[in-house]
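The record is kept unedited without comment:

——
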Amino acid sequence: MFDAQTMAFLAVAAALAITPGADTLLVIKNSVRAGSRAGWATTWGILAGVMAHALLSALGLSVILAQSDRLFFVIKSLGAVYLVWLGCKALWQSSRPLPHADPNSVQLPATAAFREGLLTNVLNPKVAIFYIAFLPQFISVGDPVLAKSILLASIHNGFSLIWLGGLVWALSRGQHWFQRSGVQKALARVSGTLLVGMGVKLFLTER
């Protein structure tokens, strides 16, 4: 399955992985606010969400989403509301005083961080549409569709892991600076505002 199409997908996947979006913002927000453990958990949740879309696309279930205006609107609305909620949550947290400079002063369980990353992807119908419209271009007629889809999604996730994991590592190296109350509040306001904006943009986006 490692044919010319797969090699071409490598460059595309690398570009997709480093394109700034809700995933990057969420990892930065959780890493800065609650430490590297939360950042890694968020990253793994995001990767799980991408793989879920790839599997649904390969099994043909995403076709239903692509062809149903009502279902697309429902999922889009849920995803938009979720992004806005995450943004408002970050803005609310930025207004709260941080009693200590210790990263453990703000608790975000790994399960909650993983769930945030997972839902950010699963509730984004644009990801599902992207996978059902994009992946087939790199799958030949004789290829096993499910296996090839998993392979391509794994490549995409591999680059995403390098990018998002690199962000978590970089933020942990500068933890002392990032854990300053003023820096955290400023980053929370910026990420919160951008997440709200992305949620509104997602809601207003047509197919």
